[in-house]
Design goal:
The structure is a single chain. This protein is 37% helix and 14% strand. The protein has 392 residues and is an alpha/beta fold. Strand 10 and strand 11 form a beta hairpin. Helix 2 crosses helix 8, helix 3 crosses helix 4 and helix 5 packs parallel to helix 6. Bound molecules: pyridoxal-5'-phosphate. The site of pyridoxal-5'-phosphate (PLP) has 14 residues, from helix 3.
Length: 392
């Protein structure tokens, strides 16, 4: 078997597909070549990030730097912070919700209809009861509905999952409003987790997402392969140290077992560290601004040809009326009923947006009617003026 030829074919295929892959949220502007030499051997960050395993083949020093950079950005107090590099957004949500469930074993978990599918799966794994909260037309949690649901169970502790960047519309739930609902209902035994897989870092750079004392947020999970565009899936979970799973010392790894996975990918921590070290806060702010500008441009261009489209002002995601199947298939536009989205992640170009718009124009010229604005079953509001962003 010619392994090199198989690898070449996979690479060519991926590069070909890249040109029209603007429906899924992975940045494509990052250069990770400096880290690639690490991929020649095993780097295993087994166990707690603060306890080093025997031997030297791990990258925990970089993992701790990543945790600290993100914790500083989110204003998580230096004397009460903990986190680790996960295999992705789902593991981050699992680690946080497991910790929350340990704190409040009889809690009800509230999460919105626009929350990521991993949340329902995690409730199944940890055996916690869940309540689905309605969303408004832009995909943000309906806080009045949350208040009603919490009110019915005010004697039970509450775990609330707020999303910062929902999968379909990149809506942002506001932890301050969640906090207000819980306070008004008199629910003291509570945990607020923010699933910030997509928008966590950009919103933290804006200063609107924080884990500072008083924010009401107890934990957060972000994705590494979305905004940072790492070439392998990964993520980060952060919480206050005082609420993490205590874990026990494992003799044969010489580490504390606090993480969901035992063995963990050392290269993932190195990639995230590379993203942070190479660009810093200012570099990532600039990447964010360029991507948002492109998303604004996409809405303008779509609107100019009469194609219904809108976005939240902070968002990379542009929601558009669902095009014909040939167009959604070609551009990999994620679709939910009458609404689809393209995501202008860092690295997506004007040329790609122009080509998508040209395809839509051709489709309308060929007699495919421009879709009327219709309400989706899940979320999106029919509007070209974007809803106001949540304060998150
Ligand atoms: C809001 C949200 N949460 C969680 C996830 C799960 O991430 P992963 O696929 O890395 O487990 C995603 C991924 O799309 C997401 O958009």
């Amino acid at each position: 078997m010619n392994v090199a030829a198989v690898v070449r074919a996979l690479l060519d295929n991926a590069a070909d597909g890249q040109r029209t892959a603007i429906g899924f949220p992975g940045a494509v502007d990052m250069d990770y070549s400096a880290v690639l030499p690490l991929f020649g051997r095993l780097f295993n960050n087994v166990g707690d990030p603060l306890s080093d395993p025997g031997g030297t083949a791990h990258t925990k020093v970089l993992e701790r730097a990543v945790v600290d950079w993100c914790a500083d950005l989110l204003a998580l107090p230096a004397d009460d912070r903990w986190g680790y590099v996960t295999a992705g957004g789902t593991e981050g949500n699992l680690a946080a919700l497991h910790a929350a469930h340990r704190r409040h074993p009889d809690a009800v978990v509230y999460y919105s209809r626009a929350a990521h599918y991993s949340v329902g799966k995690i409730l199944d794994i940890i055996g916690a009861p869940g309540e689905l909260v309605d969303v408004d037309e832009g995909g943000e949690m309906d806080y009045r509905h949350l208040a009603t649901l919490v009110g019915w169970r005010r004697h039970r502790p509450a775990i609330v999952v707020a999303t910062a960047g929902t999968t379909m519309t990149e809506a942002v739930d506001d932890p301050a409003r969640v906090d207000a609902v819980l306070r008004e209902a008199g629910v003291d035994r509570r945990h607020v987790h923010v699933d910030a897989a997509l928008a966590g870092i950009p919103l933290a750079l804006d200063g609107v997402l924080t884990l500072a004392p008083g924010s009401g947020v107890d934990s957060i999970a972000v994705s590494g392969h979305k905004f940072f565009g790492t070439p392998i899936p990964c993520g980060l979970v952060l919480m206050r140290d005082s609420i993490r799973r205590p874990g026990r010392h494992v003799a044969y790894t010489a580490t504390l077992d606090t993480t969901v996975s035992g063995s963990r990918c050392g290269q993932a921590a190195a990639l995230l560290w590379c993203a942070i070290a190479a660009h810093g806060r200012d570099g990532h702010r600039a990447r964010t601004a360029r991507a948002r500008d492109l998303a604004a441009y996409a809405v303008e261009q779509l609107t100019a040809i009469g194609w219904p489209a809108w976005r939240h002002p902070h968002a990379f995601t542009v929601v558009l009326a669902t095009p014909p199947a040939a167009v959604t298939g070609k551009w990999l536009l994620a679709t939910d009923g009458s609404w689809s989205h393209t995501i202008c992640m860092p690295g997506v170009t004007r040329g790609q947006i122009d080509a998508l718009v040209a395809d839509l124009q051709t489709a309308s010229r060929d007699g495919v009617p421009v879709p009327q604005q219709r309400r989706s079953s899940q979320t999106a509001a029919p509007q070209t003026v974007a809803p106001q962003p949540a304060g998150a």
